[in-house]
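Hey,
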Amino acid sequence: MAAEKNNKTLNVPNLRFPEFSGEWEKYLLKSITNIYDGTHQTPKYTKSGVPFISVEDVTQKSSKEQKYISEQDFHNNFRNPPQKGDILMTRIGDIGTPCIVPTNEALGYYVSLALIRPFEKLQSCFLNYVIQSNSFKRELH
């Protein structure tokens, strides 16, 4: 919640750790992260290889079978593959559902997902929490 000082609303939380002071700063997402999208072409699926995910995998709205693409398709289509700590966020169909990438293993993703890579000083778990907030969702929509 914001506090008031001389009829001006301050952007400070009501509960605060003693080592922090001052107002919270607001940033545009693009100023604190790199944002990428997935492949725009539907890849040729294989029986094994690099896992390939879409919105349904992030939202866990279905228990469909895991899809895979070949190593070659992965290397040809993903200049910025997901890394541990990145956030994949839905952007088509379901909008704004995030999940943190748990591993550095190769992972392909479709254009319906945005890959958000926080700059070094920004913690993924904090950003994931912010993305799930009502204020972020209002701005997103």
